[in-house]
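Box 3.1 A note on notation
Throughout this textbook, protein chains are presented in two layers. The first layer is the amino acid sequence; the second is a token string describing backbone geometry. Keep the layers aligned when reading.
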Amino acid sequence: MSESPSNGAAAYKRVLLKLSGEALQGEAGYGIDMPTLQRVAREVCDVHALGVQIAVVIGGGNIIRGVAASARGMDRANADYMGMLATVINAMALQDAIEKMDVPVRVQTALEIKELAEGYIRRRAVRHLEKGRVLILAAGTGNPYFTTDTAASLRALEIGAEVILKATKVDGVYDKDPEKDPSAKKFERLTFLEVLTLELKVMDAAAISLCMDNKLPIQVFNLRVEGNVKRAVLGEHIGTFVTAGATHG
């Protein structure tokens, strides 16, 4: 992968974009903000237009977050299943927005909801990508106690993605929360081991460990900057790279 300014050629053939549910709520604070949804769909379509195969794993935190509901007294497994259903709602919304931009798209879900979407089958997922369809993967891993970050790592490895593009609300990984502490330091590059030992909030430990064991790089960047998904795919050095051999700085 190139880290120099792009010459217009994509740096990857197949990528997995990890979106939080909050990415769809905009400034609304809850639910799905339609202009934000359309902008995110446009970002995905711009990558598709490069000829890059793109899969999207989406969270459900704009509707319900299983861990938070569990902390308020709900059974953890029930709360997590509700969170999985929230990701299906988001996936259907994103599918609709992408279809309206005349780009072929399929939703696969780890929970069987055959009236709404295909069940996740790895070979079929890869075939959709090979046929030039955007692939949206919903319902996490289909199991409680696993986050959509872990689902993103697992699915990226299963489909043979070359990188996980982790789209967030900040422009990379910091040693502290930059929205609360102006002295927070941004890392340009990190190793997986540094992320784990420094307890940096990139993805959860299970997700990072999966990527580390399989040497699958992660690029963390700000989704709120228009065009950033395309820039990442073109190989521009935006945000923070997490790889097997980088040193932080």
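The domain at 14-243 is CATH 3.40.1160.10 (Carbamate kinase). Residues 196 and 205 are 7 Å apart (CA to CA).
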